[in-house]
Please model this.
Amino acid sequence: MLHFINDRPPLETGAKSVTCSKMKTATLTLTQNLQFGPAMTALPPMRRAFVVAWNNAGHRNAADCARAAGYSIDRDRQTAYDALHDPRVQAAIVEDLRARFTGMAGWAMEKLAGIAENDGHTKQYDALKTILVHGGVVEKQIISHEHNLAPGFEERMERMRELVLSMGDKAPADIRALVLDNTAADADYAEVSPEDF
Model:
């Protein structure tokens, strides 16, 4: 008999039953060959079973997953710790998750399309944008930049002019030129083109 955990096929050929209390189905009977990637294939069968149990359990209770993979109940916590700190197991966990998520792409696109087609959905714009971006349609952004004078700027400049005029020759020449001569500020800037860089 073939049981699936979280709708995931079993590990390898055999007729071994394993349990993990955090999984939806408590018993998994392994009766089928699966095509694994290189990281999973490189692992011994029990480590491979641990990886699948760990991913099926949603990364909860590693000791339960170690027992589900067939490891001894006496050392399940230590075995789980060792497995999760093994770089080969870590690579296999990532590889298995990528395979699962790749397999869910069609389902995800269906859900995304459902949101995009629902005119009342609050995330409709985000869904449409995601579909377009992943479909190769890149959003073009036009950025404009304006300089606006702060409110009251003209009044403050007029008060500065009056102050500088009242100081007469006592006002520093550069301040007097800046405040009284409107062209002085323009003299500090030069037109620059991209070729100048």
Q: What stands out?
A: Residues 105-134 form one domain. The longest strand covers residues 17-18.
